[in-house]
Amino acid sequence: MTQARADATAKQPDAQQALKRERDNALDEVAALKGTVEELTQAREHAEARTVELSQRLRKVRQSKAQEIAGSIGAAYQLPATPGSYANSSGSKTRSSARQRPLQTLKQDCRLRKLTNSVRRERQQTLTQSAGLQKPNNSGSKTR
Asked: Would 87 be classed as within a structural domain?
């Protein structure tokens, strides 16, 4: 029995050293996980702030474009002040500028839709990144 006790006593420092290494490794892993949690929390906060920023930008763009379009529509259907106001250089009357105004309005509306869709896609990507806490995609945004 004394031999077994002597063997156990001889192995005790090795066992303690092994336990100490395991504890140190576990503490290192905990520290790394804490850092990851902090990074993810900051990424989520950034994504939420970006979402608010994009929402405000989209609201402002919509308001300004709506005002532009309303002004263009109003100008497009406004009657001339005098009968000769559309006379061209040859003296004949033309309404080409009146026809171009609705076309310009349509072009502005098309640009507004593209911009709105682009902002929506960027907002959705930000929300997706925020929800999944994934790394941003650096492939760039595509406009249609």
From this structure: no
